[in-house]
Specification:
The complex is a heterodimer. Chain A is of the alpha+beta class. Chain A has six helices and five strands. Chain A has one domain: Glutaredoxin, CATH 3.40.30. In chain A, about 45% of the residues lie in helices and about 15% in strands. Chain A has a five-stranded mixed β-sheet. The radius of gyration of chain A is 14 Å and the shape is globular. In chain B, a hairpin with a 3-residue loop joins strand 1 and strand 2. Chain B has a single domain, classed as BolA-like (GMP Synthetase, Chain A, domain 3). Classes of the chains: A alpha+beta, B alpha+beta. Chains A and B meet through strand 4 and helix 4 of A and helix 3 and strand 3 of B.
């Protein structure tokens, strides 16, 4: 299918994932999550003080459609770290409980200053079909 | 029962359990839920050696487009067991 608006959305999602080391696609915003699973995932990231970008999938159904087509993952939220799908709420919670998420995000033992500075460099947002909320 | 009548269009935990166990051989599932939101504890040898993502996808694939639609949410806890 070569619907230009679909391609544009898919490209916007791809760039968002490529340009943000930690990016969460969620329902609602970090300040006002619209679903319990998104809320829990945000709470974990915030508790680790991990800088992350967030995309609300609710304003346009095409975001979710294209995201799931791209990732092969049917549900929201979806967390990507360094361009790779980490998973949804269940996996994020499991990895948090096992300490793996802290390792992946480089926020072990509160030594997050260097990581945070590195992540902050990629904070530029561009006007696109996606609104990316950066919490950097 | 009035509650059963209301629940005609909803999905039962038993249906999910049966579908997971028959689609993924050797798997055992314990499913609870309210007809829309479900939690499944799933274990079986099919998950051995797979990444978490792949383990979850294996179960998600049983339901395809029903996820997020007829099955509003399915929370998974997956354990790989030794082949028997």
């Amino acid at each position: 299918m070569s619907d230009p608006s679909t391609n544009q959305m898919r490209e916007a999602i791809k760039s968002a994932i490529a340009e943000n080391p930690v990016i969460l696609f969620m329902k609602g915003t970090p300040d006002a999550p619209a679903c319990g699973f998104s809320a829990r995932t945000v709470a974990v990231l915030e508790s680790l003080e991990a800088p992350f970008a967030a995309v609300n999938v609710l304003p346009d159904p095409a975001i979710r459609q294209e995201l799931s087509a791209l990732s092969g993952w049917p549900t929201i939220p979806q967390l990507f770290v360094d361009g790779e799908l980490v998973g949804g709420c269940d996996i994020v919670m499991e990895m948090y409980e096992g300490g793996e998420l802290q390792k992946l995000l480089g926020v072990e033992a509160g030594a997050s200053d260097a990581a945070a500075a590195g992540h902050a460099a990629s904070g530029a947002t561009e006007p696109a079909p996606l609104t990316i909320e950066n919490l950097l | 029962m009035a509650l059963a009548t209301l629940g005609v269009m909803s999905v039962s935990p038993d249906e999910l359990k049966g579908r997971i166990e028959s689609a993924i051989p050797g798997t055992r599932a314990a499913v609870s839920g309210d007809g829309h939101h479900f939690e499944a504890v799933v274990e079986g040898p099919a998950f051995a050696g797979l990444s978490r993502i792949a383990q979850h996808k294996l179960v998600y694939d049983v339901f395809g487009a029903e996820l997020g639609d007829r099955i509003h949410a399915l929370s998974l806890k997956i354990t790989a067991t030794e082949d028997q």
